[in-house]
């Protein structure tokens, strides 16, 4: 979406701001890196929209990656104060961000699949875990417990074999309905992101979605994934 928002002077553009003055959560008043915050701008009609790619022009403001904080910013009308303009923050802005983050993750999964860095199917996932090429594993929320347990056993075996290395993380981020809508014929029950730039992108976006849905914390089981070099 292209949004120019209420025009701001160049010095007001937060994209060039430092961690103290530019990138500060308008709810908690805590500064953070771009990866810890979501940027928002005003569209030409004055509606607040998320700028996940941090590319839209004009004055922006930031909220920590936490659905509850986005909802709070809407309820307390903090966007108008932060953007220094009369803007409208939709009541479902928090849900919109969730949908966009989920779509962003699904798109990255499809990109990684084309690059050969995302595989699905229990046998391929098991093999990727056991040979150490898996950065993270993913299960549909409706995945059978037995299938999840078998891959968990492979994750534990790899972890024990590497001794001190972090366990490969495991995510369950998509409901069956989300999977059908976002992935279509690429929907999976079990999948794994593999080593490589696209695979790393999948893990990064999965962590972002998990944190957004779970109070700024990821509920993914396991550690950071790859063995240390």
Task: Outline the fold blueprint.
Layout: E1 37-42, E2 48-50, E3 61-64, H1 67-75, H2 78-83, H3 93-114, E4 118-120, H4 122-130, E5 134-139, H5 145-161, E6 170-171, H6 176-183, E7 190-194, H7 197-213
Parallel strand pairs: 5-6
Antiparallel strand pairs: 1-2, 1-3, 4-7, 5-7
Helix pairs in contact: 1-3, 3-7, 4-5
Features:
229 residues, alpha+beta, Hypothetical Cytosolic Protein, Chain: A, 60s Ribosomal Protein L30, Chain: A, three-stranded antiparallel β-sheet, 38% helix, 13% strand, elongated, disordered C terminus
Quick structural overview:
The protein is 38% helix and 13% strand. The chain has 229 residues and is of the alpha+beta class.
Structure, explained:
- By secondary structure, this protein is an alpha+beta fold.
- The protein has 2 domains: 34-90, 2-Layer Sandwich (Hypothetical Cytosolic Protein, Chain: A); 99-214, 60s Ribosomal Protein L30, Chain: A.
- Helices cover 38% and strands 13% of the residues.
- It is built from 7 helices and 7 strands.
- α5 links the parallel β5 (134-139) and β6.
- α1 (67-75) packs antiparallel against α3 and α3 (93-114) runs antiparallel to α7.
- It comes from Rhizobium hainanense.
- This is YlxR domain-containing protein.
- InterPro entries: Ribosomal_eL30-like_sf, YlxR, YlxR-like_sf, YlxR_dom.
Mean pLDDT: 87
Predict the CATH topology of the largest domain. Answer: 60s Ribosomal Protein L30, Chain: A
**What proportion strand?**
5-15%
The N- to C-terminal Cα distance equals 40 Å
Shape: elongated
């Amino acid at each position: 979406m292209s949004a120019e928002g209420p025009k701001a002077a160049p010095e007001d553009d937060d994209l060039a701001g430092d961690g103290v003055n530019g990138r500060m959560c308008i709810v908690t008043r805590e500064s953070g890196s771009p990866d810890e915050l979501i940027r928002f701008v005003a569209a030409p009609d004055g509606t607040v929209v998320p700028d996940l790619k941090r590319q839209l022009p004009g004055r922006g403001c930031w909220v920590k990656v936490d659905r509850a904080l986005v909802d709070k910013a809407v309820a307390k009308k903090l966007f108008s104060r932060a953007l220094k303009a009369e803007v409208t923050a939709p009541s479902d802005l928090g849900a919109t961000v969730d949908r966009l983050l989920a779509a962003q993750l699904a798109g990255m999964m499809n990109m990684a699949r084309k690059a050969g860095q995302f595989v699905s199917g229990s046998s391929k996932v098991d093999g990727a875990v056991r040979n150490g090429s898996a950065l993270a594993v993913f299960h549909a929320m409706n995945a059978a417990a037995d299938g999840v347990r078998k891959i968990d056993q492979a994750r534990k075996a790899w972890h024990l074999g590497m001794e001190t290395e972090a366990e490969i993380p495991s995510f369950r981020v998509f409901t069956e309905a989300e999977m059908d809508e976002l992935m279509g014929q690429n929907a999976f029950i079990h999948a794994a992101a593999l080593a490589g730039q696209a695979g790393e992108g999948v893990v990064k976006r999965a962590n972002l979605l998990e944190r957004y849905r779970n109070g700024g914390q990821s509920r993914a089981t396991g550690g950071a994934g790859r063995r240390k070099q």
